[in-house]
C-alpha cells in the first residue's frame, strides 16, 4: 500500500514541477503544492533527501521509456536522431522534471545500485547505437568516447533550449524542423564516406 501511495505522490510532484506550481522539492513545499499531508510525507519518505531520491529515480525511468521508444529498426545514424527526438519529447512533455534532473545534487544517489542502473541505462542506449554504427562503418571507431559525449551534450543542450523556450523560434518549430536540427547537430559524427551517401 505504501509503495502505491509513494508512486501517487511522486506523480503529483512531477505534475506540479511541470506546471511550475512547485519550484522547491523540500517536504514542506511539496505538501503545499500537492495538498498531501506533511505528516504523511514524513512517514513515507522520512525527509527531503528521501523524496528527492525517489523523484530522481522516477525521472530517469520516464526518460528511459521515452528513449526506448525510438525506432530500433532504423539504421544507427537515423536511430540516433530518432533517439534524440524522443529525448526532446521528454524534455518538452516534462519541462519542470527535466530541469530538476540536472539540478538535483546528491552524491549518495550513485551509491544506490538501482539508481545508477536506471540513470546509466539511458546513456547506454546511445552508446550501443554508436557502437553498432562503428561496426557498420558509419561512425569512426577512434572517436567513440567523444562521439557518445558529444551526442549526449548536443541533445541535452537542444532540449534545454526547447523546454525552457529560450529560442525565439522555439514555439514555431515543426517536428520536421526539430528533426533537421538534430540531423545538423549529429552530422559531424558521421564518417566522410557516409556523409556522401547521406546527401544523395
UniProtKB/TrEMBL annotation:
UniProt domain HTH-type transcriptional regulator MT1864/Rv1816-like C-terminal: residue ranges: 82-165
Keyword line: Transcription, Transcription regulation
Family annotation (SUPFAM superfamilies): Tetracyclin repressor-like, C-terminal domain
InterPro entries tied to this protein: MT1864/Rv1816-like_C, Tet_transcr_reg_TetR-rel_C_sf
Protein name (database record): WHG domain-containing protein
Source organism (scientific name): Motilimonas pumila
Taxon lineage: Bacteria, Pseudomonadati, Pseudomonadota, Gammaproteobacteria, Alteromonadales
Amino acid at each position: 500500500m505504501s509503495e502505491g501511495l509513494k508512486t501517487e505522490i511522486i506523480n503529483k510532484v512531477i505534475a506540479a514541477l511541470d506546471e511550475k506550481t512547485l519550484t522547491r522539492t523540500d517536504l514542506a513545499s511539496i505538501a503545499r503544492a500537492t495538498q498531501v499531508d506533511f505528516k504523511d510525507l514524513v512517514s513515507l519518505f522520512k525527509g527531503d533527501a528521501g523524496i528527492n531520491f525517489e523523484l530522481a529515480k522516477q525521472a530517469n525511468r520516464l526518460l528511459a521509456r521515452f528513449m526506448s521508444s525510438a525506432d530500433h529498426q532504423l539504421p544507427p545514424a537515423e536511430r540516433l536522431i530518432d533517439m534524440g527526438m524522443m529525448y526532446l519529447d521528454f524534455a518538452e512533455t516534462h519541462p519542470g522534471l527535466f530541469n530538476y534532473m540536472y539540478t538535483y545534487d546528491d552524491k549518495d544517489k550513485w551509491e544506490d545500485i538501482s539508481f545508477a542502473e536506471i540513470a546509466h541505462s539511458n546513456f547506454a542506449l546511445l552508446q550501443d547505437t554508436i557502437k553498432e554504427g562503428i561496426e557498420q562503418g558509419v561512425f569512426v571507431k577512434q572517436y567513440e568516447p567523444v562521439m557518445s559525449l558529444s551526442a549526449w551534450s548536443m541533445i541535452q543542450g537542444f532540449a534545454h533550449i526547447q523546454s525552457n523556450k529560450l529560442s525565439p523560434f522555439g514555439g514555431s518549430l515543426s517536428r520536421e524542423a526539430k528533426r533537421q536540427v538534430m540531423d545538423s547537430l549529429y552530422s559531424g559524427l558521421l564518417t566522410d564516406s557516409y556523409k556522401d551517401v547521406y546527401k544523395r
